[in-house]
Amino acid sequence: MLHNIYERILFAYTSIDQNLRQMAEKDLNQLEEQDSNFCCYLLELIQTHKQNNQVKFFTIIHLKNVIKRKWKAYKQMLGCEKRQGYFEENQRNQIKQQVLQIYCQEDVGQLKQEVLQILFELCSSDYPFKYPLLINFINQQLESNILEEQQLSFLKQIFKIMPKNQMKNDQYDRLWQKIAQLWVQADNLNTYSQQSLVLLDKMFTNFILSYNQIVFKDEISQIFTTILQKIARLLQSPQQQQYQKNINHLISKCSKFVDIYSFYLTQTFPDFLQLLSVTISSDKKFIIKGGLVAFIRFLKLSYLFQTDEQFQFYLKKKSDSEKQQFMKEKQIIDQILKQFFEKESQNFIQKFLTFITSSNDISIEEMIEQEEENEFEKILHPKDAEIFSLGLIAAELLIIRAPNICINLLQGYIDQTIQAQFQINANILESLLIIIGLIPKIQSKLKMQFQIQYPPIIQYLQSSNQIHHQRRLSILLNRLILILDQNQILSTLTLAGNLLSTSQDSIIQYQSLLCIKQVAIKYDGNLQWSQILVTVCPYIVKLLKCLQRTSIITPLLDLLSKLIEKCQNEQQEVVINAIENSGLLQLMQSKFQEAEENLLIIDQVCQMLKTLIVAYPLGTKISHIVQMASVLIINNINSKQACILELILLLLREYEEQSQNFPISQLINILQQNLDNLLSDTSPINSCIILQIIEELYLLGIFSINDFSKHIPYMESKYTLRDKNVKNSVLGLTTTMILMMLNNNRQDIAIFSGLIQQILNDLIEPEMNDRLDNKFRIEVQIVSILNRFIILARDDYFSFVQQNNISFEKYFQSWMKKSEILESEKSIKLNIIAFLLIIDYVQPNIFTAYITQIATQYGRFSKKQLIQKAITILSPCQRLSQYRASSRKEKIRNTQMHNEHNLQQYFQKIIQDYILKHNLQQDLTIIQALQIIS
């Protein structure tokens, strides 16, 4: 076995022959699936080839990949309620022991790093309680008074991936004292290198954060004070620059501790707030950034700024004693914050006015994103963010948290600036204008009235010929729409229109278009929207040509979508001409089909078109929208993008034969030309949509019964996938095919033999219960589809069931068990009809055992009949759903169902006849069941 694995490893990782590599990989994968000892073999191979670094390295890589796949995996145990892990407990222990042993044996280098990754994977689920060997190893590491960098790195990472929210335990008692002692010793900055100090700080904080707050609640105040003191020493150090990583890490973790332990830190709260003020006031860029990040995280702790009523709701899950304690601490914090904002807000605003200035050294798109995407959550790496972005976020949050204080201060600056006729320091003016641009957004969010003098500011910006002032004007106009009344909106729209038509600057044009978008959303009056569309469409196309980022393009597409929607009641010819003359169709033919980076753009355009389609009532003429959609589909149908397929499916479902709301022939031709290529797509997501597209083509009459033989093999192959949505799509298409056969008086079900066998396996076998999350919905589909086969050709169907070595009794029991979950009126009705059709096959003892369930089901169906059915009108959201009911399918479905009155008579007659035939009139179970029916 070892030699076999050895050869396969070498072939898989070193062979230049692709076929050999693929065969070796396949063999290794099979061994992995078939034998849970595979990892132990790999570990043995590593030990037997200690001197061969190449073999050892590739085996470790393969071991790492297997561990990632299988360490938390479960075996596929059919019929077992309790899942069984892939590895036995003794195998897990052996793997953990040997991996740690190999880690200790290896010297520093890539091999050791790879083994470390395996250790981390093992620890993610087993440390600390299931990995005592590692605990002992960590304790040995901590025995040293001074840890090496590699040891610190290991411990830092281990504590980071530890399961969170742990309670106090033996491991805590053994480790905490040593870790705390080591960290305190590190105050002697000469003992460790700068990198080691960072690792030690991270090890220390990661350990604390891995435990539940109850563990450290009594010690956290002292720990927090010690951390603040350490930061202060580092800030005062002559080598301050050298320790910037330490400073930023500790400041960052302080904000995390404040988040978790707020009400245990009231004594040290003022010191923390003072630290924020000191860092933001620093003249060192790296300290300012660290301070801003911590300040933002602090200001985003919404519960600290809640009213007493809101805070009571926040505490609803706490005990009465905790509520009382936290309310008391909250009052102390409220007073601390009030004093802090009164004292420091002016200093913060003055500081913001010095570093919130636009940079000309960045791209147009970066400038736009700085203004529009200033949400802290969207900054992936805050420490790498620009001070401008962090300052903008901090300024906005500060005004939100202390609105009255900050607005009064800003109003004073604005009044002084107006009195000075804007003749102040250019950088300060720029920063002030940027902050003024935030105020309408804040005002709208807080629903407060601020007495800001906007007209003089707008007048000044209009009169200035400096491009950065024109940009500020366009941004301010965009934001002002949020707070203006209906009369003021139109004058702002005029200003934005003038800016759009007179400026060649992309930022000004972009912000002016966003202003027009806000008007389209907020304005309730009548406007000639088609003329606005004619005006702005060329500008949208121009910007789409030169901009790339999805976050920037999406608002432009939203504007286009909103304007076309607003033109619903205006002449379509104007809308069509506006689209054609703007160059939008040509742009969609070129840009959106070329580069891979445009895939997200295609997705956004598809979303825009789908939103537009459902914005119009069903049956409305939408040729102009379909024209755009067709261009996109033609150029991207083979891109294997789900969004394109979803767009096609929506168009097929939205087409109304009576109104002929758009020409569908071009779309049908595109599908027929490309269907073979679409069917080759192996993606489960795409397969699901393709099956639904085929179903709609049958319902539209494009495909007929004669085409079943082309598509059923494809359906069989897709049903074998363990994807719940694909299975549902196969079953949905099968239902449509059966309905078509019923409508054509065809009863030959032999063509479905392979598919029926697969569906029967899911009915009888319990595997699906363990494997599919969506089992209930799928089981409803399975029961319903088999019921339709019974209605279609009962005798042929049960002959086929017997050919598959399934007795009628076994089938009936599985069928009845699955039918317990039926809820909808249609599925219950179908089940009752199927039962009546197979009653002749049912033995009296089986009938007696299940008649109560059938009677109860019939009773539920009868009650549902008494409920008046409201006429359902699909909402736009429902129309967009991939799983919406097809109106065409419902029509043919309803032609194949008994009407309610006839079914009631039919049901009672069949049941009574069966009871009389088998002399069951005196059976108590039968009597009780009949009472349910009557």
TrEMBL record:
**What name does this protein carry?**
Importin N-terminal domain-containing protein
* Top-level taxonomic group: Eukaryota
Q: Which organism is it from?
A: Paramecium primaurelia
Q: What molecular functions are annotated in GO for this chain?
A: small GTPase binding
Q: Name one GO biological process term.
A: intracellular protein transport
The cross-references to InterPro entries, in alphabetical order and at most eight, read: Importin-beta_N
Query: Which parts pass through the membrane?
Result: none
- Which residues does the UniProt record annotate as the domain Importin N-terminal? 24-105
